[in-house]
Design a protein that fits this description.
alpha/beta, globular, 14 strands, 6-stranded mixed beta sheet, 5 helices, 207 residues
Length: 207
């Protein structure tokens, strides 16, 4: 498995490109970057984009959702709890931040907790950790977790946007701390590990 970060401007959400080295099948996790930057990376590494996966539906993570689908033909998948974020400017928070509607086409694939997607020889497992939004998903690939805006290095996702819930977020963080050790690729900021966050993240010290 190979993973690279494609830089995104604006709110600096992480756009992760992950691929299977055997088949060269790839997935983009959160199309936050410019479509051209993503397709340039696909060409550079001779990759076939098979999935566009959303960790959640906030505007800063879905920026290239439509243009990337148009450019590659790859389907977009999102957890059922955040499916309406693509077509609802309040749910995706663009109305909150900009006072205008940023809308996208509905997802081709609706995910549920426990679903598995194949990417060549890799298996992507879908976990549901709501709180930051109703449909926050974490994607597990081997010993890696793409945590979106659930858990960052030294912090956690905010809960004051539409659909956020502090109590639900706390329950999700407790469950996340019970998982086995993984390397974390979050929705903002740098790479970290679950073990490090359990030991040092101030938001996890009560669990």
């Amino acid at each position: 498995m190979q993973i690279i970060r494609i830089p995104a401007a604006g709110f600096a959400a992480n756009c992760w490109l992950v691929w299977d080295e055997t088949s060269h099948e790839a997935a983009v996790i959160d199309p936050a970057a410019e479509c051209d930057d993503i397709t340039d990376a696909l060409r550079e590494h001779s990759l076939k984009l098979c999935w566009i996966l959303l960790t959640h539906g906030h505007f800063d993570h879905i920026f290239a959702a439509d243009t990337l689908r148009d450019a590659t033909g790859a389907p977009l998948a999102v957890h059922r709890g955040d499916a309406k974020s693509l077509t609802d400017a309040v749910a995706n928070a663009s109305a909150v931040f900009f006072g205008e509607k940023h809308l996208y086409r509905p997802a081709e694939c609706i995910l549920e907790k426990g679903d598995e997607l194949q990417l060549g020889t890799l298996t992507i497992r879908v976990h549901h950790f709501p709180g930051h939004s109703p449909g926050c998903a974490i994607y597990e690939v081997g010993d890696v977790l793409f945590t979106g805006d659930v858990l960052f290095a030294g912090s956690v996702g905010r809960v004051d946007l539409p659909g956020g819930n502090a109590g639900v977020m706390q329950e999700s963080l407790e469950r996340l701390c019970d998982m086995e050790e993984h390397t974390l690729y979050p929705g903002h900021g740098g790479i970290t590990t679950l073990q490090k966050e359990i030991k040092t993240n101030p938001f996890l010290q009560y669990f």
